[in-house]
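ping. complex inputs:
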Amino acid sequence: MSSSMNTPELPLASWARRIAPSAMQDMLQNITKPGVFSLALGLPAAELFPTEGMGQAAARVLAEQGGALQYSATLQPLREHVVRMMEKRGVKCTPQQVFLTTGAQQGMNLLVRLMLEAGQSVMLEDRVYSGFQQVLEPYQVKRLAVRRDASTGLDLDAVESVLKSGERPAFLYTMSDGHNPLGTSMAMEARERLVKLARDYRMPIIEDDAYGFLQYEDTVLPPLRALEDRGVFYVGSFSKILAPALRVGWVVVPEQMVFRLATVKESSDIDTATFTQRIVLSFLDSGKLEEHLTRLRQEYRTRRDALLKALETHMPKGATWTKPTSGMFVWVELPEGADTTALLARALETEKVAYLPGQAFSVAGGRSAAHCMRLNFSNCEPAKIEEAVARLGRVLAARG
Amino acid sequence: MSSSMNTPELPLASWARRIAPSAMQDMLQNITKPGVFSLALGLPAAELFPTEGMGQAAARVLAEQGGALQYSATLQPLREHVVRMMEKRGVKCTPQQVFLTTGAQQGMNLLVRLMLEAGQSVMLEDRVYSGFQQVLEPYQVKRLAVRRDASTGLDLDAVESVLKSGERPAFLYTMSDGHNPLGTSMAMEARERLVKLARDYRMPIIEDDAYGFLQYEDTVLPPLRALEDRGVFYVGSFSKILAPALRVGWVVVPEQMVFRLATVKESSDIDTATFTQRIVLSFLDSGKLEEHLTRLRQEYRTRRDALLKALETHMPKGATWTKPTSGMFVWVELPEGADTTALLARALETEKVAYLPGQAFSVAGGRSAAHCMRLNFSNCEPAKIEEAVARLGRVLAARG
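pong. complex structure:
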């Protein structure tokens, strides 16, 4: 019947050989066990998904569109919706500059594949979304880490000094709003200075705005793409504002980039799952997005406030944390010397509470964030957040 | 407001700079114009999609599964369904060897990313699915083309002689059933000899079985994966048997490959669109797949017969073509000297009929298939097929 080849090893490229079933994967399994009070993952609140609206949209699409399940070209009307959404973010663009993707992660992955030459360097903040580092994995790439401080923001002097030293990174990857993992947003002057630096040194910027539509205060600043239309490659997503499992996102790029993205995407997965694109389009056509976003912002604001209040009550002396105006995360810094990676096992065991250790967001696995943790506030109701932080407080107190 | 960076060019890796809006893209636009009798694309018949069953499945998923729109882990029950489907193809595997993808194209893309080292060679048939060549585009890769003849099949002497010469390709890419573009299937002895060669020379095989469940005769041969479980990396898909826009496919690989695929997929698009996976699962749970497949095979068999009959009537002297027992395509060879690429413009203009020129399937754009064309029989009803071939016959006759 079936037989065994006499190969001792799998046929893998050398970088792929180094992929190991990660400790993180094990950790994720523990974190998501039932009964765990988890502030760990970046999950939106499932109970707030517009499930009924999506059901109606899916039914409409299947009943009315003969080609809904067939291969089909990109949906122009959905790109037009994105243009109008971007306008609300202060960004002017055309439907020809919008490219639809299977979520923000794919947007980043495709951009990196097009923009990064093997051997080039890239500039990253020293607290950075781990999924972006995963994108870089197959490339032999020098990672230039610049400080992004929870309180003082991106260290633009450091950015300038790296550029002055002659480094020419393929791009800088950053998030101006609802930063993952810090939860911070950049000040207006910082946005302007960063864009100026990028122009002066012709450094492209990949701007990840996955949380940009989740704003909790009256003052909302424009993303970098609003200040610079050729040098900033903008990545957006419906995952955090509608639902992740639909896998619909977009990028806004110069028009000459779009057919290249289409070519790379074609080779990746033929084309975006147009069935779910159609569901998103039908939902947007029904005019329910604004109402849904208002509700979402209101509820997430309440949850953020619950988390900040609980931290005031339960965190040990010496701990500091960010006060986000957008996104889903609060970043906690314990006094230097604390080891949140080691502490997580104890937190799970003794108090069934989970967070993500700072180290998960360090460039190339460095230890500079080993005393930090990322807490999510979007996925749990306020009472559960309060209970989780109380538990976390006990774990930290016991550390002693 | 927005300003312009003084960069004369986009920031692109050198291979990406070479991507051009392809002549093929233009051609595809002409081909899909309303009123064109097109036998060009590999489209399943949309009128045969189980749209009602899918609608019911979508409604069930949204009504009954709270996490349907949330991030979620891979669906074990769907992998178990795949195992049972593979059994019907003569393949024994476990759910732990099944990895779910966003369609077959993603399966191939992820496998290539893991298996191919820059600078390595790969072995391809000289008539090969163009989407697979697209996957290779970003890599500096030597393409070893071996003859796959429409009548004599894959030239295994040539495969052996290349291997004997010392070449050690990263893999051979092939399709044993319903070959795209040839429409042919391999004889049993050829399958056995190929697997033996692969074992002897430790050459991995990527087996693309996207059309393997579309069989029109009583005798169905097992895919290569049934003969070899470690050296054959199998790619399957629901796109041709359910519906492409759902974007659900799978690979069957050694278990130690699965966490590596998960890592690369995570960095590509976080995870498969589990919403559409859930719809597929719910449809399979309803037990309607077999009935649907029976209907599909019956109708596609009728359409294949209509195409073959029309070719007998309308093809010029000297033309030959394949008689497929599976898949969606017939491969036509005109006498040497014919140029089907040049002819297509005339076919569209004078008779509004379309096919794909053989050159689209040549390795590295070679001209060895310039006198050939690929005709699809799944997407049009028999009467339309007959009309399309009549028109094509007139175009070829006028060619003189």
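Chain A has a mean pLDDT of 93.
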